[in-house]
């Protein structure tokens, strides 16, 4: 299907992009890699009056170490994130999850910021953002603001980005030593959306689980933080399979998974429990050295 007509702009600086977006009206959309937006245009599920292409805007691409956090530019491609030594060292969960996004062709064009701004609960990265307490940096004619991931995803394909705002970067906190990470994903084919996904981070001390963070993919209209699992796993012996399994049984609590051609809600709840157990075990087994 052919998309509806729209105006097209390609600014070269962030200042120009902000001005163009503000002048294009509330129905304008930001275009980066295009792997989320273009299919919606072709199916006429989105009718933007204008596209503002930020793919060549200087300063929006790259990964940098900022001391207590890693800053990932909004237009950094998935492949660049996966290959970044900084990401691999300081936020390995991001690298693990990003490596599962679609296929190599998509990862070479799709962008890290675009996946988050699209706010699809079936995407792999929103749940990771929630689990790691990422902070999203946005800019508009009114200035800059920072939005915690916990308040960024509002509903299905709906984020806290206001009209005229552009996502410029994502802060990923460094969790430090003693943490282990894993992303467990069930999908029908290698390039498909996750039927269910689980992002897990586990901190151990003296053989005991001290802290757990779990984000769920495709278990509601937004990514879900599995707080019941986090509370139940705290204090469990790290190698105790039974304790982690009992904690994982709480994974579906408070979720509202969708029904579609791939799975019904009860099956997704079952998957959430099974995958959370696997993710907790793997995260417990692979951790950075404590200091």
From TrEMBL:
A molecular-function term among this protein's GO annotations: FAD binding
PROSITE patterns xref list: FAD_PCMH
SMART domains to which the protein is assigned, alphabetical: CO_deh_flav_C
Region (Disordered): 235-263
Xref: InterPro entries: CO_DH_flav_C, CO_DH_flav_C_dom_sf, Diverse_Substr_Oxidored, FAD-bd_PCMH, FAD-bd_PCMH-like_sf, FAD-bd_PCMH_sub1, FAD-bd_PCMH_sub2, Mopterin_DH_FAD-bd
PANTHER family per the UniProt record, alphabetical: XANTHINE DEHYDROGENASE SUBUNIT C-RELATED
Pfam family, one: CO_deh_flav_C
Listed name of the protein: Carbon-monoxide dehydrogenase medium subunit
Top-level division of the source organism's lineage: Bacteria
Organism for this UniProt entry: Planotetraspora kaengkrachanensis
SUPFAM superfamilies found in the cross-reference section: CO dehydrogenase flavoprotein C-terminal domain-like (SSF55447), FAD-binding/transporter-associated domain-like (SSF56176)
Residues in FAD-binding PCMH-type domain copies: 1-177
Keywords: FAD, Flavoprotein, Oxidoreductase
């Amino acid at each position: 299907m052919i998309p509806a007509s729209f105006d097209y702009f390609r600014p070269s600086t962030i200042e120009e992009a902000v001005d163009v977006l503000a002048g294009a009206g509330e129905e304008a959309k930001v275009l980066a890699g295009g792997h989320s937006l273009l299919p919606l245009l072709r199916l006429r599920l989105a009718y933007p009056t204008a596209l503002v292409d930020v793919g060549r805007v200087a300063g929006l691409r790259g990964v940098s170490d900022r001391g207590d956090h890693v800053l990932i530019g909004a237009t950094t491609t998935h492949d660049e994130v996966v290959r970044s030594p900084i990401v691999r060292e300081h936020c390995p969960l991001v690298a693990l999850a990003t490596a599962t996004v679609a296929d190599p062709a998509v990862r070479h064009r799709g962008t890290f910021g675009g996946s988050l701004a699209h706010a699809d609960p079936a995407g792999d990265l929103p749940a990771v953002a929630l689990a790691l307490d990422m902070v999203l940096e946005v800019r508009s004619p009114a200035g800059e603001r920072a939005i915690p991931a916990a308040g960024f995803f509002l509903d299905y394909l709906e984020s806290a980005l206001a009209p005229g705002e552009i996502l410029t970067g994502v802060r990923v906190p460094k969790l430090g030593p003693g943490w282990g990470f894993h992303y467990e994903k069930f999908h029908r084919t290698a390039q498909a959306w996750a039927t269910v996904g689980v992002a897990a981070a586990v901190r151990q001390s003296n053989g005991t689980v001290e802290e757990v963070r779990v984000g769920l993919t495709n278990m509601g209209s937004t990514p879900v933080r599995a707080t019941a699992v986090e509370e139940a796993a705290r204090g469990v012996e790290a190698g105790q399979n039974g304790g982690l399994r009992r904690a994982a049984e709480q994974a579906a609590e408070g979720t509202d998974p969708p029904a579609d051609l791939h799975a019904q809600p009860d099956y997704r709840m079952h998957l959430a429990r099974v995958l959370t157990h696997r993710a907790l075990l793997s995260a417990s087994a692979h951790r950075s050295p404590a200091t």
